[in-house]
Amino acid sequence: PDPLDTRSPIERFRTPPKKPLSVTDIVSPAWCELQYWYSLTKYGRVRRTAAMKQGSSAAHKVTGAQVQKAVSVEVETKEDAFGLKIWNIIQNLRTLRATGQAREFETWAVIEGQVVNGIIDELSYECPDEHLEADVAQQQETKPKRGRPKKQKVAPENQPNLDTFFSGSQTAKDHEKSWLGVPHANRRIYIKDVKTRGSKSMPKGEASFRPTSMQLMMYHRMLSLLASNSVPAEQVFARYALDSNAAFSDMFLAQLGSIESEHGAEAAEQAEMPAEDPIDELLAHNSLEKLWTLMISEFQLAIPFSTKPSTPSPIGDILMAEYRASGSGSVIGSKSFVYDSDVLDAYLKKTMAWWNGERMPNGVEIEEAFKCRMCEFAEVCGWRKDKVEEGIRKARLRKEGKKKSDV
Questions:
Q1: Which pLDDT score, from 0 to 100, does residue 158 have?
Q2: Which is the most buried residue in 68, 97, 245, 366, by most CB within 10 A?
Q3: Does 343 lie in the same domain as 287?
Q4: Do 357 and 387 belong to one domain?
């Protein structure tokens, strides 16, 4: 790292024209902040090896092929490119309603004032661990209620809440006669992430699992914000330097309109309503702002949030990481745990303080020194050298203390 560059990490690496923060940027420091700092200063990101790419590709091909097919679409403008992302979310939400699953689900949120982007491996209506969910429900029933209730997150100023949005939205009125039907109020959405490993064993210990747990909790937070219309669309568009009112190109509209929705007919049949022609739908939402509005209405049908504080979230708190073998993509095992907003808040506060340059990055503690053995920056890491010297000093003091006690 250049000692003369006093800019914060966010200024150096995630300020326009560079890309916004990603979930990877937020959770990678959970493994080792210094390793991520070295990676940023050398590569600008975490460098993925050929083995990592091959393993990830194999696992995601196995899971992705089970639900949807990839279709190539050419774009003429950056608004087209971002519109394609929003359209993919809309189709993913329809796939979720029709099949109970959706994969490669993109999200955006504003976290600690920064636009953050992430892609969730899998959403499902099926709970990944019903026993754990039942245990949590039982604990909540028997747990005495203490303290003040948690403050509900609210939509940004000037942004309508869901009740206002749907009472006056033309999109909502259009959907009254579309195939989309009514929300599944009794369904819950669960989040799963797929990890690949070179070994055939599960990762051991809390330290090894920490980045994955933070990643899944970030997905939970971001999906909750987006689905409840609590993400300021204009801030997202501004961060990507997009004109939210610009019309999409004719070529882009024609391509999307010609793609037959794989699950549209099935969803229409389930909703007992006629399917809407994609061209008509796209022409009615021919800008990023209008397409975002359509996306929010689709969220309310697939993941319906209520404005009543007492209503449980439609997003389940049971999160799962599934581990697959790199190469074959076969399942090694899985680990489930419970979303904890307090733990995530504390982690975000600490990590964003580093990103904002309010503190220096830290290395791992002695108990997690095993991470240094697989780090490409071990030889140049001052933190590691200091910890080694600290360990030697402590060992020497213990030895001297033992000698005195023997005397």
A1: 55
A2: 97
A3: yes
A4: no
Of residues 316, 292, 275, the one with CA closest to residue 89: 292
Backbone angles phi, psi at 81, to 5 degrees: -60, -45
Distance in Å from the first CA to the final CA of the chain: 50
By residue count, the chain amounts to 407
The answer as to whether 141 is a domain residue is no
* Exposed / middle / buried, residue 122 (Cβ in 10 Å: 0-12, 13-18, 19+): buried
In a domain, 200, yes or no: yes
Predicted confidence (pLDDT) per residue in 281-328, tens digit? 999 999 999 999 999 999 999 999 988 878 889 999 999 999 999 888
Torsion angle (degrees, nearest 10) of CA 48, 54, 57, 58: -150
pLDDT band at 233 (very low <50, low <70, confident <90, very high): very high
23 and 82 co-located in one domain: yes
Note whether 21 and 86 are same-domain residues. yes
pLDDT at 299: 97
Q: Which residues contact 96 (CB under 8 A, 6 or more apart)?
A: 102, 123, 125, 189, 302
The model carries a pTM of: 0.83
Predicted local distance difference test score (pLDDT) of residue 274: 53
User: 267 and 382 in one domain?
Assistant: no
Both 189 and 226 in one domain: the answer is yes
Q: What tens digit of pLDDT does each residue of 23-36 get?
A: 999 999 999 999 99
Q: What domain count does the chain have?
A: 2
User: CB neighbours (10 Å) of residue 332?
Assistant: 16
Pairing mode, if any, of strands 114-124 and 21-22? Answer: parallel
Q: Which long-range contacts (CB under 8 A, 24 or more apart) does 303-309 make?
A: 303/93, 303/189, 303/223, 303/227, 304/183, 304/184, 304/185, 305/162, 305/224, 305/227, 305/228, 305/229, 306/162, 307/161, 307/162, 307/163, 309/149, 309/152
Which residue, 195, 200, 196, is CA-closest to 51? Answer: 196
Are both 287 and 386 inside the same structural domain? no
Which band of pLDDT confidence, cut at 50, 70 and 90, is reported for residue 99? Answer: very high
Task: Give me 56's structure tokens.
Answer: 């990830």
Query: Within a domain: residue 385?
Result: yes
Do 278 and 396 lie in one domain? The reply is no
**pLDDT in the model for residue 367:** 85
Residue 388 sits in which domain range?
A: 371-407
